[in-house]
Write a structure and sequence with these properties.
By secondary structure, this protein is of the alpha+beta class. 25% of the residues lie in helices and 40% in strands. It has helices spanning 27-35, 37-40, 135-143, 146-165, and strands spanning 7-11, 16-23, 50-56, 63-69, 75-86, 90-97, 111-120, 123-131. An 8-stranded antiparallel beta sheet has the order 1-2-8-7-6-5-4-3.
């Protein structure tokens, strides 16, 4: 497996998705791309969608409220409630689909994310562990196109990191 390609594995027994990806940039630059609202807007959504932040308070107990804007103008609202942060090492939070005020949508599953950043010199390895309450919730997210969308977003991030590192 090429470490510069997104690898997503499903762990049905433990109701988790594992994502591993190496990026060609130092950890401080990759960390900034994952935690700065302006930079997230440039890569988080798979094209032709774009991510738009309504508010972001990157701290333990804070929240990122954003939407993915479709080419037709539809807004798909999401939130991430940050629970733990260790600077340039990892952050954790609960992610959910929601309305424009941040009220979780009970028709869609929520999930818990742990994003870990490993310094590998000029490169950074990112590991994402996404945990679900039920296997059916994990399958629903996969069926909604998570693997394809997150892989495409990582391609967007590659392009952004080239700009930030030059």
């Amino acid at each position: 497996m090429n470490p510069f390609q997104t690898e997503i594995t499903k762990d049905s027994k433990n109701k988790k998705l594992h994502v591993t990806r190496m990026f060609k940039a130092p950890v401080d630059v990759v960390w900034r791309a994952w935690t700065d609202a302006d930079l997230l807007g440039k890569w988080w959504a798979p094209r032709p969608y774009c991510a738009v932040t309504k508010s972001m308070d990157f701290r333990e107990g804070g929240r990122w409220l954003y939407y993915m804007l479709s080419p037709e103008g539809e807004k798909h609202w999401c939130l991430l409630d940050y629970s733990k942060i260790s600077f340039q090492e990892y952050y954790m939070g609960k992610d959910a689909f929601c309305d424009d005020k941040g009220n979780a949508n009970p028709d869609h599953p929520s999930m818990r994310w742990k994003n870990t950043f490993q310094d590998e010199g000029k490169n950074t390895r990112v590991r994402v562990e996404i945990s679900f309450d039920r296997e059916e919730d994990m399958d629903k997210i996969i069926d909604m196109g998570f693997k394809e969308g997150f892989t495409a977003a990582h391609g967007n991030l590659d392009e952004l990191l080239k700009q930030l590192s030059s």
